[in-house]
Amino acid sequence: VVLAVATPSVDETPLPAQEGSMSVRVEVRACEVLLVEDAASRTSRMLSLRTGVLCSLDGKDSQGFAEQLLKVSVRDVEAALIDGVEKSILAPTSLQLNLEKRFASSELYDWRLTGDVSPLSLRLSYRDVLSVASIAKKAPSAGSTSVQTEVEPSKKSNRVVTASLKFDVSSISVALVDDAKGPAAPLVDLSLTDLSTNINGPSTELEGSITTTLKARAFDLRSLRFEPLVEPYAVTCHVKANATDKSWDITTSSEDVLDAVLSTAFAARLIRLQGSLQRDLGSSRTIQQREAFSLRNETGLVLDVRAGTREWTRVDAGASLDLRSPTQIECLSLIHI
Which of 55, 115, 187, 310 is deepest in the core (most CB within 10 A)? Predict the structure, then answer.
């Protein structure tokens, strides 16, 4: 972690404090955050987030008016699910945020937020969703001794604040995999391209739009190939909001014709998965990771087997080794002479 603070040099002659400036820079070159389901277990499932962060804060004050500029650069952020082996969920991506605030007599009257995100690629299976849900449910309360205290509501100012929000994401791709029963099979590939958000105005009358192009394809188990589910469809969401009352009004429009193809077989898969997901997530029992593959030793020899990054496991002749997903396997035979 690198921390740097810079302030301008001042003359020894005392002068009325009318102007000032400050610059703070914090850099975390590499870090990993782990969210563990059960800290007491050495083999507990966990979520891993790796990234590097660079933050800089510049501020200046003059004649009762102040400005602040916060820049946050998150680079090479990636997420993985660790359960015996590590499985990538979010491919490495980067994020750039700029937040600018203006104050008058210590009261905020204007803020602007701009952001730019590199392509996002997310891959989730049915078992991944169950694991993430279990970790998210148990990890925050495990070993927590914090005391909840009531927070007094802050006093609302009558000043109308102007705001501007601009956000751009070049593309978002989501791959969903069906491994609820047996070997994994692709379910849906969803992509959003040219996602752009532009909302601005006074806090009581925010207006703007969100535009993107949607495309989706579904995997056909009979032909073993992807078939179009939704042809490219450009859509615009018109947003009207009141930040003071926390009210939103969103309408959608498009000049394209929505061309979607939904087969009965794919609809049946969705209904089955929805029922299984509601049942598994609503169950009070611990969500366990079910094995998808089984490797049976038919060599007639005793083998030492290692799958992925796991430890070596002794597998006798005729015995089986359960695997969670396809992976590289190493085997050593034990021959007694």
Answer: 187
